[in-house]
């Protein structure tokens, strides 16, 4: 067999892919082959999020997630859990009681603990790494004013990690976020996570999602953040890598994409596939990004792509619906983009 991505980086870090509910239900042969050739870590794209796994109070739904774990074990992959405490894809009943009133801090913290104990308890010994808290800070370095924060204050993060550590003392616990490279955000995350670690809380590392554009952030901006994380003594995982070839990702360049392209509009400039010039740009971008990761390989546990194939990427419908993105290393028939792979082999 051809030596794959995971072999290329075998001495450096795990190479992961996020799987959808469809992926684990259908398990098409071509996908399973691709996983076994190229990946040695898996993440659940949506199927372990609160709304998927704990849709109603007292009701846990582990079917899809169990399939994910079985598949991962069969392939010998390192398994990630994503994500225990987030403000999104979490049902309303978590935050509000039956009368629609916000939960008390006592009730909300009990809800959180019950969720973490049940979910981590179910996968104990199988899922080795958890994104415990996701996206708790704003790009400006403030605590995100989510229901978690508004009801429990900053201690909700600490409580989540303490509960997770009790639920599975062996698990590696991560704080995960996007735009971790934005200086105010990096500093806020590191100052808080160091603070609670110094209080005895077990935090293994910082997950940098890395939904990147072709030019933003710069390698240097990413490197500065990586160095800061290392200086604070945390491990790093690249948890959700993709590179968007389309312009104006909202939140990244500060551009308001909705103002330029109405939400329902199609934005698909490359109808016949990615032209050679853009393939070259994407290749160079992947090359410089992996070069950076290799430079810090001693500190990076894992690099995970957010889906395997372009057509399955969430970027096709975000931030505007109907756009077609080319962010990953595999195209339709799970064909590896050789032009990128070849370039990575010469790093
Ligand atoms: C995304 C999924 O890819 C989409 O399918 C879903 O509709 C929304 O969530 N940050 C995260 C991921 O931590 O869970 C998000 O995944 C992408 C941004």
From TrEMBL:
Keywords, in A-Z order: Carbohydrate metabolism, Glycosidase, Hydrolase, Polysaccharide degradation, Xylan degradation
Keyword check for Endoplasmic reticulum: no
SUPFAM superfamilies: (Trans)glycosidases
Residues at the active site: 240
Record field: catalytic activity: Endohydrolysis of (1->4)-beta-D-xylosidic linkages in xylans
Known EC number: 3.2.1.8
Enzyme class, first EC level, given as a word: hydrolase
Gene Ontology molecular function: any one: endo-1,4-beta-xylanase activity
Domain GH10 intervals: 1-347
InterPro entries listed in its UniProt record: GH (IPR017853), GH10 (IPR044846), GH10_AS (IPR031158), GH10_dom (IPR001000)
Gene3D superfamilies: Glycosidases
One Pfam family linked to the record: Glyco_hydro_10
GO BP: xylan catabolic process
Entry's family note: Belongs to the glycosyl hydrolase 10 (cellulase F) family.
UniProt-recorded name of the protein: Beta-xylanase
Taxon lineage: Bacteria, Pseudomonadati, Bacteroidota, Cytophagia, Cytophagales
């Amino acid at each position: 067999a051809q030596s794959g991505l995971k072999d290329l980086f075998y001495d450096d870090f795990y190479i992961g892919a996020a799987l959808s509910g469809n992926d684990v239900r259908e398990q098409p042969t071509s996908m399973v082959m691709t996983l076994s050739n190229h990946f040695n870590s898996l993440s659940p794209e949506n199927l372990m999020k609160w709304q998927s796994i704990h849709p109603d109070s007292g009701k846990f739904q582990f079917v899809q997630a169990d399939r994910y774990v079985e598949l991962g074990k069969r392939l010998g992959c390192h398994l990630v859990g994503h994500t225990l405490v987030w403000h999104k894809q979490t049902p309303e009943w978590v935050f509000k009681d039956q009368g629609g009133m916000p939960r008390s801090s006592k009730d909300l913290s009990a809800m959180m603990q019950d969720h973490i104990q049940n979910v981590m308890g179910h996968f104990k010994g199988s899922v080795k790494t958890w994104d415990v808290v996701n996206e708790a800070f704003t790009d400006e370095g403030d605590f995100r004013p989510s229901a978690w924060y508004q009801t429990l204050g900053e201690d909700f993060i600490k409580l989540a990690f303490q509960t997770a550590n009790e639920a599975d003392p062996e698990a590696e616990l991560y704080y995960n976020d996007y735009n971790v490279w934005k200086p105010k955000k990096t500093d806020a995350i590191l100052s808080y996570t160091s603070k609670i670690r110094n209080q005895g809380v077990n935090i293994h590392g910082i997950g940098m999602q890395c939904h990147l554009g072709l030019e933003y952030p710069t390698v240097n901006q990413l490197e500065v953040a990586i160095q800061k994380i290392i200086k604070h003594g945390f491990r790093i995982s690249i948890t959700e890598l993709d590179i968007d070839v389309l312009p104006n990702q909202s939140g990244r360049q500060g551009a308001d994409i909705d103002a330029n392209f109405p939400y329902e509009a199609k934005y698909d400039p490359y109808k016949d596939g990615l032209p050679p010039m853009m393939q070259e740009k994407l290749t160079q971008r992947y090359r410089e990004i992996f070069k950076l990761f290799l430079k810090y390989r001693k500190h990076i546990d894992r690099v995970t792509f957010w889906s395997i194939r372009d057509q399955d990427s969430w970027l096709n419908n975000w931030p505007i619906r109907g756009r077609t993105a080319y962010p990953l290393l595999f195209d339709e028939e799970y064909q590896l983009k050789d032009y990128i792979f070849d370039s990575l082999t010469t790093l």
